[in-house]
Amino acid sequence: MKDILVNINKLFESRVRLGIMSMLMVNDAVDFNTLKSHLDVTDGNLASHLTPLEKAKYLKVNKAFIGKKPNTTYSATAAGRRAFNEHLDALERLINSSAK
After folding, report:
1. Coil, strand, or helix at residue 8?
2. Helix (H, G, I), strand (E, B), or coil: what is residue 83?
3. What percent of the chain has pLDDT over 90?
4. Is 1.10.10.10 the CATH number for 2-91?
5. Which of 10, 39, 85, 87 is 20 to 30 Å from the Cα of 26, by its Cα?
6. Confidence of residue 95 (pLDDT cuts 50, 70, 90)
7. Segment 34-44 mean pLDDT
8. How far is CA 38 from CA 20, 26, 42, 53, 90, in A?
9. Which three-class secondary structure state does DSSP give residue 20?
């Protein structure tokens, strides 16, 4: 059983972080407001979940201006994609082992 749990990544245990990475896995980039809206969280709550993913280098932050308005977008890095896929694989193994 310990072998099954080894690749479960604690950074993805939160509903919000799981949602962030899920959105980034299927989109090249997602802006802050879209993440906030789809995940139904506040600015501060979203920011507090983005920070650890950025520190782990699982996502890349791109800040730009559209006209005079700031626009921040996020994209999954290769390391983030790999870690998230390993996490999903570990969850799948856990579910499959429980079903036996």
Report:
1. coil
2. helix
3. 77
4. yes
5. 10
6. confident
7. 97
8. 9, 14, 11, 18, 26
9. helix
Neighbours of 56 (CB within 10 A): 14
Residue 18's nearest CA partner among 38, 44, 42, 43 is: 38
- State the DSSP string of 41-82: --HHHHHHHHHHHHHTTSEEEEEEEETTEEEEEEEE-HHHHH
Confidence (pTM):
0.89
Single-letter residue type at 23: M
Residues in the chain: 100
Rounded CA-CA distance 35/29 in Å is 10
Beta carbons within 8 Å of 50's beta carbon, 6+ residues apart: 20, 35, 59, 61, 74
Query: What pLDDT, on the 0 to 100 scale, is given for residue 96?
Result: 85
